[in-house]
Amino acid sequence: MNALCKLVAAVSLCVATSVAYAQDKVVYHLDGGLAQATKGVRNMRNHLDVDPKAQLVVVAHAEGVDFLMEGAKTTNNNQEFAALVGDLMNRGVKFEICEITLKNRNLKKEQFILGPTYTPSGVVRVANLQAREGYAHIKP
User: What is the pTM of this model?
Assistant: First the structure.
């Protein structure tokens, strides 16, 4: 019985240790325009300041793609999003733009800043990150 207790304690310690060192994975879901993106960028910076190893993916669709367009500016201090997105990308954040949105809004990839990648469907991508890859979902 004593050996069984030690085994259970050892397994519990291993599980607790692996959970403590697990890297958080979070999808930031942006579909609401420049005001939402302004809040989202601030949230992401704060997130990484507290947890620099967090794995963040931003999926933008509908009006959420607007902040990734050339010349887009924040709603609070009129700062260009391109520099803010570049800083976040340098910290490991990945940005993805919905191709269905491009088609529905007659937008071209050339209208967007360099760096983000494209996904066939933003909604499907968010769902897959959550259901299949274990990402937490944040919608600022």
Answer: 0.84
Angle at 30 between CA 113 and CA 115, to 5 degrees: 25
In order of their start, the domains of the chain are: 23-138 (3.40.1260.10)
What angle, rounded to 10 degrees, do the helices at 81-90 and 34-50 form?
Answer: 30
CA distances from 9 to 12, 16, 20, 22 (A): 5, 10, 16, 20
Check if the beta carbon of residue 28 is closer than 8 Å to that of residue 47: no
* Residue 125, CA distances (Å) to 9, 39, 55, 76 in order: 39, 21, 16, 29
Rounded to the nearest 5 degrees, what angle is found at the Cα of 128, between the Cα atoms of 34 and 126? 10
Q: What is the pLDDT of residue 33?
A: 95
Q: What is the largest CA-CA distance in the chain?
A: 70
pLDDT digits (tens, 9 = 90+) for 59-106: 999 999 999 999 999 999 999 999 999 999 999 999 999 999 999 999
